[in-house]
Amino acid sequence: MSLYQAVNSAGDTIFEIGSDGGISTQTMIVKGRDESIAEETRVQNDDELFFSVGASEYWTGEVCAFVSCGSATPGFSFDFRGPIGTTFFYGDSFSGTAVSSGAVGFTQSSGDHLYVLKFSISVGVAAGTINFRWAQNASSRDTTTVKEKSYLKAIKEC
Please, is 113 exposed, middle or buried when counting C-beta atoms within 10 Å of its C-beta (0-12, 13-18, 19+)? Predict the structure, then answer.
């Protein structure tokens, strides 16, 4: 239950004060254009899905990735990267796979797919940027595309 909730014009919660007096902050980034790669299995920073964090903060959230593959070969893999000393726990909500480091990969049939990827992040002593990173799971000339309207939603805990 919230004692107070601030929302923007789109109805998204900007922050709220809980009944225990704790304050949470939320950020949401929606991808504005498709981004494609081919013949690349090393995860790279997404051009749009990232957010800033302060030292000693704790964040939870999700990435909703709309992914398209030209064939069944390339698939999709992802991880997160942040400032030195940041610890991560992330995975996908469908298979239940979760890790604290390294890329999580998926094979998939050609066409469009939806991945709901959950994360929790504990930032160390350095502020910086949390980057959602992705690549093909297996190298292929067929492109893997993270589509427009994919999003990253993160909530900073008190």
Answer: middle
Residue 51 counted as domain residue: yes
Where residue 157 falls among pLDDT bands split at 50, 70, 90? confident
The answer to whether residue 7 is domain-embedded is no
**What is the domain-level CATH number for residue 123?**
2.60.120.760
Report in angstroms the alpha-carbon separations of 23 from 7, 26, 44, 78, 119: 14, 10, 33, 30, 20
3-state secondary structure the chain: CEEEEEECCCCCEEEEEECCCCEEEEEEEECCCCEEECCCCCCEEEEEEEEEECCCCEEEEEEEEEEEECCCCCCEEEEEECCCCCEEEEEECCCCCEECCCCEEECCCCEEEEEEEEEEEECCCCCEEEEEEEECCCCCCCCEEECCCCEEEEEEEC
**What total of structural domains would you count in the chain?**
1
Q: Check whether 137 has a pLDDT greater than 80.
A: yes
Question: Domain for residue 15, yes or no?
Answer: no
What mean pLDDT value characterizes the chain?
Answer: 88
Q: What is the pTM of this model?
A: 0.83
